[in-house]
Amino acid sequence: MNIRRATTADAPALLAIYTPFVEDSTVSFELTAPTVEEFAGRIEQSLSTHEWLVMTDGERYCGYAYSTPHRAREAYRFSVETSVYVATDYRGNGIGKQLYYALFESLHALGYKSAYAGITMPNPASIALHSAVGFKKVGVYSDVGFKFGQWHDVSWWQRHVAD
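Given the sequence above, the corresponding structure tokens read:
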């Protein structure tokens, strides 16, 4: 298995991992999956200031992790939001942890201090992953997202990536 920095050429494979999270779950609050071009643009934009990593197993894509700005105002510049998505065939094998630890190392090198993650509730697997890599729950936004005809809460988690 190999973890490396993503490129826009990875967009079709990574979008294939992401699309079921959009179409079949509340993990993502997108209602429609982006196009390959839109997804490639997200990768490109993130890499200009943050990080986007992919894990491959030979020619197969196992998952990816990325960071984006936490908030737009300048005082938030040392904080990021993070996400990890793992392909169905690779879930439960520690891929998410490996991606997160690699992402934290990169974010530390880039000078970031804190990482935040939002988890749509309920999601025991995501809570277990985030807890295992050192995130702590900091709060809940109640009824913040509306998808599949119902309201959903999002719990927010924080982890320091640097002192």
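The chain has a mean pLDDT of 96. Try to locate this feature in the token string yourself.
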